[in-house]
Amino acid sequence: MDIYHIWCDLKPGCSDTEFVRATQTWLDQLRSGQLLSDYRITRRKLGLGGKAPGEFHLMLEFTGLAQLDEAFSKVASRTDPLESFHHAVNSKVENISFALYRDFPDAVRQEGEEKF
Q1: With contact defined as beta carbons under 8 Å apart, do 94 and 8 qualify?
Q2: Fold of 2-45+54-101
Q3: Which of 5, 15, 41, 64 has the fewest Cβ atoms within 10 Å of its own Cβ atom?
Q4: Domain ranges of the chain
C-alpha cells in the first residue's frame, strides 16, 4: 500500500466541519471511481505537536503507484465533477505539505543480504 500524506491548516474563518464534509465528498468520489483505496482524516488532539506539519492530517491509501498516478491524472484534468470537489477542499486550506510513504517491508522486497 502506498500512503499519500497531506498536512494542512484551515484558512482563517473556515469551518472545520465544512472542511471535513467537503474532503469526505471529494475522497468518496475518488474511492467510488476506484482511484483511491481508502482514506483517513485526522486532526491534532489537545494542541499536541508543533506548528508544523499542520492541524489536519489526511492519509490517502493507494494500491500502488499506478492507482496514485491515475488519481493524479484525473484530478489534474480539472474537469467536473472532481474539479469542483477538489476546489471545495483546496480553497479552505493553507500551509500544505505532502509526503508519500509505503508499507514496509512491501511485497517487492526480497529477503537476503543487504546491499548498499
Answers
A1: yes
A2: Alpha-Beta Plaits (3.30.70)
A3: 15
A4: 2-45+54-101
